[in-house]
Amino acid sequence: MASVTIKINTRTKKTQHLFGLISEIAKSDKNVVIIETGESPYNEEFVKEIQKSRASKGKVIKTEDLWK
Fold first, then answer.
1. So where are the chain's domains?
2. Nearest residue to 9 (alpha-carbon basis) of 41, 33, 31
3. Angle at 21 between CA 17 and CA 34, to 5 degrees
4. Cβ count near 36 (within 10 Å)
5. Greater confidence, 18 or 3?
């Protein structure tokens, strides 16, 4: 059995189709296995700060006080 590593950018239609095809083959054929590493290229602390920021309601500032 051979191992092949493929990095797929799933944002494009062609690669979504390719990943879907490989996934369907893996479901029906036990000789094909998909192993996802799930590695993120982003710093974990930075991601936590962004998620925390998105969850907050933010601050309301009057336009008169914007440049003060």
1. 13-65
2. 41
3. 115
4. 5
5. 18
